[in-house]
From TrEMBL:
<dbReference type="InterPro" id="IPR014729">
    <property type="entry name" value="Rossmann-like_a/b/a_fold"/>
</dbReference>
<protein>
    <recommendedName>
        <fullName>Electron transfer flavoprotein subunit beta</fullName>
    </recommendedName>
</protein>
<keyword id="KW-0813">Transport</keyword>
<comment type="subunit">
    <text>Heterodimer of an alpha and a beta subunit.</text>
</comment>
<dbReference type="InterPro" id="IPR012255">
    <property type="entry name" value="ETF_b"/>
</dbReference>
<dbReference type="InterPro" id="IPR033948">
    <property type="entry name" value="ETF_beta_N"/>
</dbReference>
<comment type="similarity">
    <text>Belongs to the ETF beta-subunit/FixA family.</text>
</comment>
<dbReference type="InterPro" id="IPR014730">
    <property type="entry name" value="ETF_a/b_N"/>
</dbReference>
<keyword id="KW-0496">Mitochondrion</keyword>
<feature type="domain" description="Electron transfer flavoprotein alpha/beta-subunit N-terminal">
    <location>
        <begin position="23"/>
        <end position="213"/>
    </location>
</feature>
<keyword id="KW-0249">Electron transport</keyword>
<comment type="function">
    <text>The electron transfer flavoprotein serves as a specific electron acceptor for several dehydrogenases, including five acyl-CoA dehydrogenases, glutaryl-CoA and sarcosine dehydrogenase. It transfers the electrons to the main mitochondrial respiratory chain via ETF-ubiquinone oxidoreductase (ETF dehydrogenase).</text>
</comment>
<dbReference type="InterPro" id="IPR000049">
    <property type="entry name" value="ET-Flavoprotein_bsu_CS"/>
</dbReference>
<dbReference type="Pfam" id="PF01012">
    <property type="entry name" value="ETF"/>
</dbReference>
Amino acid sequence: MKIMVAIKRVIDYAVKIRVKPDKSGVETSNVKMSMNPFDEIALEEALRIKESGRASEVVAVSVGPSQCVDTLRTGLAMGADRAIHVEFPGTLYPLSIAKIFKALVDAEKPGLLLLGKQAIDDDCNQTGQMVAGLLKWPQGTFASKVVLDEENKVVTVDREVDGGLETLCLDLPAVITTDLRLNQPRYATLPNIMKAKSKVIKKLTPQDLKVEIKSDLEVIQVTEPPKRKAGVILSSVDELIDRLKNEARVGPQWKRPHIIERGARRGYVRSNIIQTIER
Ligand code: AMP
């Protein structure tokens, strides 16, 4: 069975984001770019499934400008067998990406499509769900555990939901999006980085896949979040409760005052709690 993994090139998670002066987006020039962290987890999971003998090939796919090749090379160095780059220099939105993935799945026929639960640049959390809808495949989103049963053509997915763990059994082929706790991605070793140089990266365009890229939404403006106020250390629980009541306007609907009191007694509740409650 073949596994296809979506890999997006995004601003590195450790970079401090700067908004462009004209508020049209965030600054991406001269900024370190990396593989979307949730996609690293998706790739790691695909590699583990292959290493356990339950898949024969891992294909990494990225859509975007020419520099996506660098991100795909990282994926190949981690262990993907080959890669596909769908080159498109402009802005892309989840529905366009999902249509491209559908076309790639129709051509490549993988048994499993793995994506990150969300891209950390646009935070859309839509592409996996959309492509599952377009393919009419079952989907397991926010996976924290994946167990593939190739013989019975099913995959079991644990999802961390508000009330606990939800376990789904999906018929293959299926779409899975990965959550943070699924695994710890490996680093590419030097020999594998060298080996990756000779692995194949196929180039395609949306036209080759007969996908028309239309902008289905418009970003009106991007602004920085308001600056956080400096914290203050309060002298007593009474003062904290007074501030919660009169500044943060937390009334009797506040369900768990004992937690605040307990925290305040331990000395680690500062005014940022007030800010949290205000939000
Ligand atoms: P999003 O819906 O934008 O939050 O993205 C969710 C997931 O879809 C990401 O974690 C990637 O796995 C995949 N994805 C989104 N955009 C791209 C892209 N341009 N190239 C490859 N994969 C993508």
